[in-house]
Hints:
- The protein is an alpha/beta fold.
- Helix content is 37%, strand content 19%.
- Strand 2, helix 2 and strand 3 form a beta-alpha-beta unit.
Amino acid sequence: xxxxxxxxxFTRSSGDYIFARWARPIVPVVxxxxxxxxxxxxxxxxxxxxxxxxxxxxTDFEQGANLMVFFFRDxxxxxxxxxxxxxxxxxxxxxxxxxAEGANQYRHFRFEETGAIRACIAFIRLDDSLADMAAExxxxxxxxxxxLLWSDTAxxxxxPLAQVxxxxxxxxxxxxxxxxxxxxxxxxxTRDQSHALRLAARxx
Length: 204
């Protein structure tokens, strides 16, 4: 991939280049699903974390869990979750907007003082389009999209997944970017677009 192609993954619609990865080990917890789907989600997260060369843990010493995934049918269900409005500022307004847009996914990130990802709260509304999708596919897509702070337009024209026969896998291009992004010699967070050139060099 070229520098410009990689830069697009982290250049927001505002024109700002913003990159961030996790600094602390990832501790996932999943709400609103059965044990089988829970295991599928955690397995997908572990696979992508392993690809990145990062770490998972049983607990976060400050937050307990730092990757919270909510499955639900109606955005308004989130307003009934105790204390969720403390984690997501302006929750009521956000729910109203996402409901009006007919959105089926949203990710809310929180950050360390360094700019690295501190926590992520992922919302997945199981609408008709997702209801027909295999749990493994939903889980892998989720894992790919929470491992880095991608641009808000990153996957408009480039899916994080690829179809190989009857299997769905992580897109090789996206896998390369994730692997390079977690190189120990690269920063955990930056707004310097030359970072894309350093990623391209590692992928090349």
